[in-house]
Amino acid sequence: MKPAEQKAIRLLQKYNMYQLPVNVYELAHIMNIPVHLRVLEEDVSGVLVVNNGKATIGINANQHPNRQRFTTAHELGHFILHRPISGVFVDRTFRRDYTSSNGTTLEEIQANAFAAALLMPEELLRNEIGSLDLYDAEAVTNISEWLGVSEQALVIRLTRLGFISDY
Length: 167
Ligand SMILES: [Zn+2]
What we know:
This protein is an alpha+beta fold. The protein has helices at about 5-15, 25-30, 65-80, 95-100, 105-120, 120-130, 135-145, 150-160; strands at about 35-40, 45-50, 55-60, 85-90. The chain has a 4-stranded mixed β-sheet with strand order 1-3-2-4.
């Protein structure tokens, strides 16, 4: 497991939230990190603002709830992994923007790995889908809705974990 994923799991365990479905807003609340839905630039998914160690997350109010949930997890990832004392992370929808103005690609990859593991922990996913036919589109839809992630995010995650070899 990647270090970013391990930190996501440890965070869930620390706050006694290591169970599905993961409520990322409840987690942020327990961590004392306010999450605000805001009208942001169209291509901005979310922002993490850290001021003297105190974090605030802004999420684009116009994006899909699944995306908002993932973005919130992603911003928590920046906070946990990259430990900014003060600073602003701006996350845009298109990846090309990440490198130009918003830190390194590596940081974005790490934050995404953190977010995927936070919302879809490998062990819990394995337990939950043990009896699921992953080629059953309806089942994939039901699971993704239950988890609050997009079907695409779920399938990518399951594939990377080796639960689906060919979708
Ligand atoms: Zn980011």
